[in-house]
Specification:
binds protoporphyrin IX containing FE; sterol metabolism; six-stranded mixed sheet; three-stranded antiparallel sheet; microsome; EC 1.14.14.23; Cholesterol 7-alpha-monooxygenase; binds 2-acetamido-2-deoxy-beta-D-glucopyranose; monooxygenase; single chain; disordered N terminus
Length: 502
């Protein structure tokens, strides 16, 4: 894939470079790294190891520098103490332009930017209204039901249910979270359960195939280059057309609102709307699946974490009067009970700290001066300002022994959420950013944490769990997805599970 992208990048865009030449640093601008390759600039070096690339530039240039990446000039601000100051320049930033363009490229829909005139939907409001507040209650309740239907299907004979199963842990998390998440957003077709399952598993295969080329699509390659992935994307979208969704029950507010709001997507036809639903499917799954894997893997691998988490979960179920039973009686914890699980919170945060590699991007609406604590920098219109929080997440000064999983890293001495982290003696306002920041922060972050917790609660209370190989090496992160969010493991880890005799 790299070769295709290289050839494409060189062949198509060399011409543009010849015309425009390279940019020279002007007075007051951050140090500039043009890279040696036309158009791509530093993209290959950045792409092969973003963390090392940025650290090297930080040593060479200081905390603020500019890199040419894929024809764009990207200003990296790398001192975590400065993140809030960067975010306070909101009036100069276009938060959405990059997101809308990227989404259109990857999912193949027309522009959903209201300023382009084809929709009046305020996507931001839709997300806030349907993923947070009251909407979160029902979303989370439905998710818990779906998880239990998948993990403990009713009517499973005892002989079948109490045997050890060996499976790849990533494959397991992928299967369970995809199915439960899909049903929770897009509803259930209760008429023919078997056909329904086959359809979801088919969707899962298509999703994997499409997601595999996602980094290439974001980099700007046309999906036509990837025949199988293209077909997979079209099939996924096909299943999200109105006639398919309208047969389903318990469709989430997020999707049903967007199905029926005539004024918002009015110039979008059914096929086009389905592609915007696909964008939401991707956003809801692509990060959640690896995040679930890392949370489960790190928890099982660490005996102290497993012990603390089991105790917390047992306590919470007991005080909520919930008891997992062999008859498959559903477990239910409400929002308050789910939010009051500091050990699980800390485990999830620590797992995400170690696996997150997102790039937070804003585009400059106009020429302006970025004022930071240690200096001011001139920024040109259409340049990109970027934060790469992995630099902070793996900074040994903020997080001592940064590559080690410490389940209680985010717990204070009272066992509550810890919020004081320091760099160079400064207390940090931003110290944990796997969900982005400021106006573009992930609208699904509360739901995401709740669904991972629900998954962990069920795994702990209903199953016996064992790693096949113990102690097990931590699989490396798949760096080819750096910039997109939570990185999956490069290879899977085998584990064994068995329903408990309850
Ligand atoms: C662990 C799981 C998740 C992680 C790490 C994550 C992370 C992110 C990040 C980094 C962004 C981009 C923010 C930015 O550009 O600054 C984002 C956007 C988004 N996320 Fe999540 N996310 C997760 C789960 C979810 C879930 C479960 C949903 C929905 C059900 C969701 C819905 C969205 C949507 C709709 C956007 C686009 C927002 C916009 O462009 O306005 N995410 N997420
Ligand atoms: C808006 O829709 C029209 C046709 O309905 C199309 O020609 C135009 O390209 C669309 N604009 C954008 C920015 O997608
Ligand atoms: C969509 O609905 C049609 C007609 O009911 C059905 O044949 C098809 O399998 C469905 N497709 C998907 C992907 O759900
Ligand atoms: C959208 O239009 C359809 C048919 O024209 C109508 O049945 C429906 O009630 C409308 N929905 C809203 C939210 O106005
Ligand atoms: C980051 O910026 C803060 C505030 O200007 C400064 O005190 C600190 O020394 C900087 N951090 C590093 C590692 O240079
Ligand atoms: C989106 O809505 C949230 C809360 O409703 C708000 O904090 C945020 O600034 C909004 N973002 C944009 C880009 O309008």
């Amino acid at each position: 894939m790299m070769t295709i992208s290289l050839i494409w990048g060189l062949a198509v865009v060399c011409g543009i470079w010849v015309i425009f030449g390279i940019r020279r640093r002007k007075a007051g601008e951050p140090p500039l790294e043009n890279g040696l390759i036309p158009y791509l600039g530093c993209a290959l070096k950045f792409g092969s190891n973003p963390l090392e690339f940025l650290r090297a530039n930080q040593r060479k240039h200081g905390h603020v520098f500019t890199c040419k990446l894929m024809g764009r000039y990207v200003h990296f601000v790398t001192n975590s103490s400065s993140y809030p100051k960067v975010l306070s320049h909101g009036k100069y930033f276009d938060w959405k332009k990059f997101h809308y363009t990227t989404s259109a490229k990857a999912f193949g829909h027309r522009s959903i930017d209201p300023s382009d005139g084809n929709t009046t939907e305020n996507i931001n409001n839709t997300f806030a209204k349907t993923l947070q507040g009251d909407a979160l209650h029902s979303l989370s309740e439905v998710m818990m039901q779906n998880l239990q239907l998948i993990l403990r299907p009713p009517g499973l004979p005892k002989s079948e249910s109490s045997v050890w199963v060996t499976e790849g842990m990533y494959a397991f998390c992928y299967r369970v979270m995809f199915e439960a998440g899909y049903l929770t957003l897009f509803g259930r077709d209760t008429s023919k359960p078997d056909a329904q399952r086959a359809l979801i598993l088919n969707n899962l295969d298509n999703f994997k195939q499409f997601d595999q080329v996602f980094p290439a699509l974001v980099a700007g390659l046309p999906i036509r280059l990837f025949r199988m992935a293209h077909k997979a994307r079209e099939k996924l979208a096909e299943g999200l057309k109105h006639k398919n969704l309208s047969k389903r029950e318990q469709v989430s507010e997020l999707i049903s609102l967007r199905m029926f709001l005539n004024d918002t997507l009015s110039t979008f036809d059914d096929a086009e709307k389905a592609k915007t639903h696909l964008a939401i499917l991707w956003a809801s799954q692509a990060n959640t699946i690896p995040a679930t894997f890392w949370s489960l893997f790190q928890m099982i691998r660490s005996p102290e974490a497993l012990k603390a988490a089991s105790e917390e979960v047992n306590g919470a179920l007991q005080s909520a009067g919930q008891k997992p039973s062999g008859e498959g009686n559903a477990i239910y914890l409400d929002q308050m009970q789910l939010n009051d699980l500091p050990v699980l919170d800390s485990i999830i945060k620590e797992a995400l700290r170690l696996s997150s590699a997102s790039l937070n991007i804003r585009t400059a609406k106009e020429d302006f001066t970025l004022h930071l604590e240690d200096g001011s920098y001139n920024i040109r219109k259409d340049d990109i300002i970027a934060l790469y929080p992995q630099l902070m997440h793996l900074d040994p000064e903020i997080y001592p022994d940064p590559l080690t999983f410490k389940y209680d890293r985010y717990l204070d001495e009272n066992g509550k959420a810890k919020t004081s982290f320091y760099s160079n003696g400064n207390k940090l306002k931003c110290f944990y950013m796997p969900f982005g920041s400021g106006a573009t922060i992930c609208p699904g972050r509360l739901f995401a944490v709740q669904e991972i917790k629900q998954f962990l609660i069920l795994m702990l209370s209903c199953f016996e769990l064992e790693l096949v190989e113990s102690p097990v090496q931590c699989p490396p992160l798949d760096q080819s997805r750096a910039g997109l969010g939570i990185l999956p493991p490069l290879h899977d880890i085998e584990f064994k599970y068995k329903l408990k005799h309850l």
